[in-house]
């Protein structure tokens, strides 16, 4: 028996059964995505807490500034170390002569 709306009940049931695997797959993906979101939010909060403990902030821009300042300081220290090594080397050459 076909209703005035187009499909028979049997056709509707058949279509629903055909759609069930897709529905179940999408439902499983949603559950996985929600679980991933929850896990990632926890990881983000842990990373922020670690940043606050180690760096005193969890602000990304402030952390970038701290990294840039540290890189600048490291470059200066490397140059200073290289100059010290060259000075020692020069002094040893003078003592040998």
Question: What can you tell me about this protein's structure?
Answer:
By secondary structure, the protein is mainly alpha-helical. It folds into 2 domains: 1-57; 59-97. Helix content is 87%, strand content 0%. The protein has 2 helices and no strands. It has helices spanning 9-55, 60-96. The longest helix is centred in the N-terminal third of the chain and has 47 residues, at 9-55. The protein is rod-shaped, with a radius of gyration of 33 Å.
Note poorly predicted spans. none
Q: What count of helical segments does DSSP give?
A: 2
In the residues, how many domains can be counted?
Answer: 2
Distance between the termini: 113 Å
Strand percentage lies at: under 5%
The largest β sheet comes out as: none
- Written as H for each helix and E for each strand, in order along the chain, the element string is HH
User: Class by helix and strand content?
Assistant: mainly alpha
Tally the beta strands. Answer: 0
Helix content: over 70%
Summarize model confidence as the mean pLDDT: 94
Backbone shape: rod-shaped
Gyration radius from CA atoms, angstroms: 33 Å
Annotate the secondary structure layout:
Layout: H1 9-55, H2 60-96
Summarize the model shown.
The chain is mainly α. The chain is built from 2 helices and no strands.
Keywords:
2 domains; 97 residues; mainly alpha; 2 helices
């Amino acid at each position: 028996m076909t209703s005035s709306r187009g499909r028979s009940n049997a056709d509707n049931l058949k279509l629903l059964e055909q759609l069930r695997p897709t529905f179940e797959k999408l439902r499983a993906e949603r559950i996985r995505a929600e679980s991933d979101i929850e896990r990632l939010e926890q990881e983000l909060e842990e990373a922020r807490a670690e940043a606050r403990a180690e760096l005193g902030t969890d602000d990304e821009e402030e952390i970038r500034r701290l990294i840039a300042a540290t890189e600048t300081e490291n470059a200066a220290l490397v140059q200073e170390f290289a100059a010290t090594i060259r000075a020692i080397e020069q002094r040893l050459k003078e003592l040998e002569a």
